[in-house]
């Protein structure tokens, strides 16, 4: 069991490494946010659909699950759009760290929505994360782009937390690649009209970034992430995944030369220390 736990921790770290590429790629892509997300979703859908066909994964869903799958897709699209606006208005460090209020939100919502046992330790971790958030923007000036970016990040986090909670009971029933196929299809269809707001030449010029977002971040990263839902409760998954900003900030520093400020580092340490605490606590619980 302990060996399996270590393997599952490695799996979630691999998923976070792939997903963390979204920070640098989101900052690098030179397209309006709805266009970038729409193109990303369509390309990811094509890749996931072909993968499901190749592996022989069924794409049929029960009629009673249609509403949940549709809503989860809408929430995923909302999460992506708000997150990319957070990146555009700040930097990789602020954008990625701000969405990691979602473990706090998840810890508060999961006992209510999934009827799981309320755990006091998750509230204590929530306080730790919120303290870290203060250091990201201590002035809280809503005329400052960083503060607005954090607002988008928190809204993105809320959408992400709700999406994860919704899909918790579906990952044991449906394959993770299949679920991501539907979600990318929903986002792609909704944002498809925005692709006509820019020239085809502008989109083609960004093809390498969009393909990287579609394949590395979305198709591989988010599919691996969904699969980890089978091994941990949603609150534990969300807190463990807080390692993502560390990977993202390192990638941003290497490829975009974005070095975080001192207060950002302090806030990040407080937020990410919850990962270590929850990793130890979840291991003892297995």
UniProtKB/TrEMBL annotation:
Source lineage: Bacteria, Pseudomonadati, Bacteroidota, Flavobacteriia, Flavobacteriales
Xref: InterPro entries: EamA_dom, EmrE-like
Name under which the protein is recorded: Threonine/homoserine efflux transporter RhtA
A Pfam family the protein falls into: EamA
Residues of the EamA domain: 14-136, 148-277
Keywords associated with the record: Membrane, Transmembrane, Transmembrane helix
SUPFAM superfamilies with a match to the protein in the record: Multidrug resistance efflux transporter EmrE (SSF103481)
The organism's place on the tree of life at top rank: Bacteria
Protein's organism: Maribacter dokdonensis
Residues annotated as transmembrane: 12-29, 35-54, 66-86, 92-113, 120-140, 146-167, 179-199, 205-227, 234-256, 262-280
């Amino acid at each position: 069991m302990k060996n399996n736990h270590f393997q599952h921790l490695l799996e979630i770290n691999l998923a976070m490494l792939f997903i963390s590429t979204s920070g640098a790629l989101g900052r690098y892509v030179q397209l309006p946010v709805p266009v970038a997300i729409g193109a990303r979703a369509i390309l990811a859908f094509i890749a996931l659909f072909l993968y499901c066909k190749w592996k022989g994964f069924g794409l049929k869903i029960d009629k009673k699950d249609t509403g949940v799958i549709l809503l989860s897709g809408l929430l995923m699209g909302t999460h992506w759009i708000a997150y990319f606006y957070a990146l555009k208005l700040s930097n990789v460090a602020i954008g990625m760290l701000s969405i990691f209020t979602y473990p706090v939100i998840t810890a508060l919502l999961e006992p209510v929505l999934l009827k799981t046992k309320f755990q006091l330790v998750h509230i204590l971790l929530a306080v730790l994360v919120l303290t870290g958030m203060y250091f990201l923007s201590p002035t809280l000036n809503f005329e400052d782009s960083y503060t607005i970016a954090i607002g988008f990040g928190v809204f993105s986090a809320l959408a992400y937390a709700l999406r994860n909670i919704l899909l918790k009971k579906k990952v044991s029933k449906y394959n993770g690649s299949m679920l991501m196929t539907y979600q990318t299809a929903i986002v792609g269809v909704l944002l498809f009209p925005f692709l006509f707001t820019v020239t085809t030449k502008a989109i083609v010029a960004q093809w390498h970034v969009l393909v990287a977002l579609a394949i590395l971040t979305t198709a591989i990263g988010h599919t691996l992430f969904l699969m980890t839902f089978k091994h941990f409760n949603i609150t534990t998954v969300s807190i463990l995944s807080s390692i993502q900003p560390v990977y993202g900030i390192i990638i941003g520093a290497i490829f975009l030369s974005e070095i975080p400020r001192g207060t950002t580092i302090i806030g990040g340490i407080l937020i990410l220390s919850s990962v270590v605490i929850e990793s130890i606590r979840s291991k003892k619980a297995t």
